[in-house]
Amino acid sequence: MKKLxxxxxxxxxxxxxxxxxxxxxxxxxxxxxxxxxxxxxxxxTGSAVCVETDSGTRWITAQSALALGQPxxxxxxxxxxxxxxxxxxxxxxxxxxxxxxxxxxxxxxxLSTLSxxxxxxxxxxxxSNAALLSTGASRIGTMAFPDGTQGLTCTSMEGLLPGAAIxxxxxxxxxxxxxxxxxxxxxxxxxxxxxxxxxxxxxxxEKPAETPGENPGTKPAPxxxxxxxxxxxxxxxxxxxxxxxxxxxxxxxxxxxIKIWYFDDGNDYYRWVVIExxxxxxxxxxxxxxxxxxxxYAAANASAEAGDRDLTAAVQTGLTAGTRIAVxxxxxxxPYGYQQECYLAATPKDQAVGDTERLPAAEEITRQLLTDxxxxxxxxxxxxYTVTEDLEDSLLTCLFAPxxxxxxxxxxxxxxxxxxxxxxxxxxxxxxxxxxxxLNGVPGGTYTxxxxxxxxxxxxxxxxxxxxxxxxxxxxx
Length: 477
Known about the structure:
By secondary structure, the chain is mostly beta strands. The protein is built from five helices and 27 strands. It has a six-stranded antiparallel beta barrel. Strands 7-8-9-12-11-10 form a six-stranded antiparallel β-barrel.
């Protein structure tokens, strides 16, 4: 899995299967990676988003994403890219518009007419290691930049680069992250949608009518999706290895927006995928973690994506009970005489790591190591096997927390004839650990990394962190 062919396989699977399934979500397909040249070296400096305006689609980013060097390229998750011909500041310079030479496989999103002041909104952007992150923005509040530009503050996943996009429930852009705030990890400032509309010369937002008793500055609940929503009680799904695949091929619901929500009973977070009208492959992929209990909800609407509030109402009123899935337990015997060792490794953020490099095990696993911004965490596997031809399978890497929750990384595995006698490889699990930290912190207790090849548990590594109290080895009384 560590030779070039395997790397390409893994990259393509990650692009198609991670986060909220990038290639099946219009929001994700509107966000691109911004690459600059710094001292002649390519460097990821931020994100850009493609928005719909009266004059056509336009690429915008935060001016702070351009600070390290002249931006040269935008790149999508499907590996399409375009050269940046020019950068034009917008307004007083908090944002900028990019003019591209060439086209990419992107989609555009509307520009919201309202401020992003709900309790939580979807947020999509890139980390410095070029990983695409589809997460949420919470604790959203109003602010004003020093020049008077309307802005907001929010909390999201730590490490988001400037230009990350905040969306409303309808998929419209309602905020553009400009910088991290100093007073808290994962806190950011962003330009608000009304200010972006003004910068781009769009019609100003209409002031919403105030609702008696409503908190000032709170966005009104959206109206029900136009055209009516059909809740799908029996989903066409199958489990292949570690892939849970929802397949609407041949369905009479095609031509509508089909949104699928994925809930793991042991997690406090959820995933979603949107299959849009005209999608050539109406499939949604989720991790099938062995032994877990899942619930899938799905809705079809001819006019727009169903929102989370629509789902809440549908469950509360009995319109949908969802599709319950019990994922079978993993098998225990790996084929092909498979032998392995696995452990957690750590490297400095600025250290180059080769795909086939055998990283040493971390000497001590501490809460500080797991949460250190300057450290990259790797799940290292050193294995061997015997095959007569190259074979592909699914690969699922999991981190199980003491409270029973799990974060996952879904990709691909290659049994390779050329390197079967010593197959050393690793998975970057930094985002998995940091996302778990953003949800509940990293409390004391037992953690387990496990990886599954197909439907077989290939190996696992367990470590224990002390609790916070002196009695447990911590500092608190």
